[in-house]
Design goal:
- The protein folds into 4 domains: 67 residues, Signal recognition particle alu RNA binding heterodimer, srp9/1 (2-Layer Sandwich), CATH 3.30.720; 170 residues, Rossmann fold, CATH 3.40.50.300; 71 residues, Helicase, Ruva Protein, domain 3 (Orthogonal Bundle), CATH 1.10.8.60; 191 residues, Up-down Bundle (Methane Monooxygenase Hydroxylase, Chain G, domain 1), CATH 1.20.58.
- It is elongated.
- Helix content is 50%, strand content 12%.
- The chain contains 20 helices and 15 strands.
- The relative contact order is 0.06.
- It has a 6-stranded mixed sheet with strand order 5-7-8-9-6-10. It has a 4-stranded mixed sheet with strand order 1-4-3-2, covered by helices on one side. It has a 3-stranded antiparallel sheet with strand order 12-11-15.
- The longest helix has 30 residues.
- By secondary structure, it is α/β, with parallel strands linked by helices.
Length: 590
């Protein structure tokens, strides 16, 4: 088609450009001189061919009503019946008619090949100059060590033997021991699994191959398996080294009862299983993999001889969060009096990535306020921003709404303060937040807690119910402000009944199982419909009792409730220490 179009359009167009313009008088003069060989008579123009000094030229001129023209051409014996075939230069014709199309074909071929290379992941690892899916970190480039990973001391200890084997394999060979072929890092998102794998490579001072599980699965059949083969071939060439497969559950899902599963993914998994069986542990290649969903992995992948160890990387404890905070504050200009312990206690349940985000938010806040050092107040404010959102500058509440919110939040704080086994109040505010909250009460535990008693959980439920209880006690009416409290209280009571066996009605019976424990999956009831109905009734009963308990506390301390709510209405924010001082003053006055 390209050749046809070139010869049909381009070549005649080029030929047309070789015709020169001439006047009608020049046309008649050339006829008289006898140099005109052919004439083409069109409706609007005359094209004629002239031969001068063995050179053929084409001219065109306008057509004039000349009755003598035909007789003059006949007398000069000039052919004027046919069409003049304008032929361009032979070399140009060859280049345009054949050379250019061939060049276009070559360019199209290169574009198609490049596109295919990209779709194939640049053929994995072996194509020269390819930028494949595998990222290789050399020991002296982007080096990470255990000093860059905090809050995961148990995981470091489990991986120390892998590092020792990569550095001194002969020590293990002498005894007859072999290093684990594979180590699976499991834990919630943000706990530093990828960073830990890099740190192991940095401590061992060996190359580090990193690839995501999704990179193995291609639209072309067989490419995933080929990539696995090429990955292990390259790893053996660079041994000793570490191969890290992130999100291995992408290709490692269980093959049992997967109707309509992706055959390409299954072939990739089979190839991975084969390759992990195909090399010995003493070759110096260690496979590290990470996942948030170990429960979905194929049992064949987890058996000894493939992934010999599972290293849990859980959310950090109080000491771990404090160490993580110090690591991330190393690159930030801070004041000297940073209270690391307070920030660690306020971030209970946070992952390492979330702590890093809090530090970054604090640094941004410092720059926004035109200051040069990050303070503890900046870190506390960034925690509030991450938890509840930024303050809404333009949010305006009516006086009545502001009063209701003040009583609601003081209700939470007062019930928490009057209980003996509740976390101390850190802050109370009625400043609206971008998350939709019109106010909140922050409670911070004095120490890290691993176990929670039934009494403490019932106290938490009473505190959650106290906001609505305050509305009912003071205004005799309830609002929509307790929606989040209701959600949390209901979830907590369901956990008490179905997972923790804290219900007098059911006792120590597990009624629900949790899926995706590291991804915060909700518990699924594994009981009959009748039992599920009884669970609903028990949830209603416990929450109703907690609500009545909260109302009782508020009614007994009504004067303090009014004084604290009035103060919060005026100040909008009360620090926890100041709240306890005001509460103590009102108690002594009473």
């Amino acid at each position: 088609m390209v050749i046809f179009l070139f010869n049909l359009i381009i070549v005649p167009w080029l030929a047309q450009r070789q015709i020169k313009d001439a006047s009608y008088s020049k046309f008649l003069n050339d006829i008289d001189q006898g140099i005109v060989e052919k004439v083409q008579l069109d409706e609007n123009q005359i094209v004629y061919q002239v031969k001068e000094d063995e050179e053929v030229k084409l001219f065109q001129t306008g057509k004039i009503d000349d009755p003598t023209l035909v007789s003059r051409l006949e007398e000069a014996d000039i052919n004027f019946a046919g069409t003049i075939q304008e032929q361009p230069n032979f070399l140009i014709q060859i280049l345009l008619g054949y050379g250019v199309p061939i060049l276009i074909f070559v360019l199209i071929g290169r574009m198609v090949r490049r596109n295919m290379m990209n779709r194939l992941g640049d053929s994995g690892l072996n194509i020269p100059g390819a930028q494949g899916a595998v990222t290789v970190y050399e020991p002296d480039e982007d080096t990470k060590t255990f000093a860059d990973v905090a809050g995961q001391e148990e995981a470091k200890e489990s991986l120390t033997e892998v590092i020792d084997f990569l550095n001194q394999p002969e020590k293990y060979e002498k005894v007859g021991a072999r290093s684990p072929k594979g180590v699976l890092l499991v834990g919630p998102p943000g706990t530093g699994k990828t960073l830990m794998a890099k740190a192991v490579a940095g401590e061992a001072n060996v190359p580090f191959f990193a690839i995501s599980g999704s990179e193995f699965v291609e639209m072309f059949v067989g490419r995933g398996a080929a990539k696995v083969r090429e990955l292990f071939e390259q790893a053996e060439k660079h041994a000793p080294c570490i191969v890290f497969i992130d999100e291995i559950d992408t290709i490692g899902k269980s093959r049992d009862n997967q109707m309509g599963s992706n055959d390409e993914r299954e072939q990739t998994l089979n190839q991975l299983l084969t390759e992990m069986d195909g090399f010995e542990g003493n070759q110096g290649v260690v496979i590290l993999a990470a996942t948030n969903r170990p429960e979905v992995l194929d049992p064949a992948l987890l058996r000894p001889g493939r992934f010999d160890r599972q290293v849990p990387m859980e959310l950090p404890d109080l000491k771990g969060r404090e160490d993580i905070l110090k690591v991330h504050l190393r690159d930030v200009v801070t004041a000297e009096d940073i209270d690391h312990n307070l920030i660690a206690r306020m971030t209970s349940g946070a992952s390492g990535a979330q702590v890093a985000n809090i530090v970054n938010e604090a640094a941004i806040r410092t720059v926004r306020d035109n200051r040069e050092k990050v303070t503890t107040e900046d870190l506390v404010a960034s925690i509030e921003t991450v938890i509840a959102g930024a303050e809404k500058k333009n949010a305006i509440l009516s006086d009545q709404e502001k009063k209701i919110v003040a009583y609601h939040e003081i209700g939470h704080a007062l019930v928490a303060a009057k209980q003996t086994e509740s976390a101390p109040v850190q802050k109370i505010t009625i400043v609206p937040r971008t998350s939709g909250a019109l106010g909140y009460v922050m409670q911070v535990e004095e120490d890290e807690r691993s176990l929670v008693s039934k009494t403490e959980m019932l106290n938490q439920i009473a505190v959650l119910c106290a906001g609505r209880a305050a509305e009912e006690v003071v205004f005799g009416e309830i609002t929509t402000g307790a929606s989040n409290d209701i959600e949390k209280a209901t979830s907590l009571v369901r956990q008490m009944i179905t997972q923790y066996g804290m219900s007098d009605k059911f006792g120590m019976v597990n009624l629900a199982g949790q899926s995706s424990q590291y991804l915060g999956g909700e518990a699924q009831l594994n009981c009959s419909n009748e039992t599920s109905h009884l669970v609903d009734l028990e949830v209603q009963k416990i929450i109703a009792e907690a609500f009545e308990d909260a109302k009782r506390i508020l009614n007994e301390n009504r004067e303090q409730l009014d004084d604290l709510a009035a103060y919060l209405y005026e100040e909008e924010t009360i620090p926890g220490k100041q709240f306890m001082e005001i509460l103590a003053e009102t108690e002594s006055t009473a």
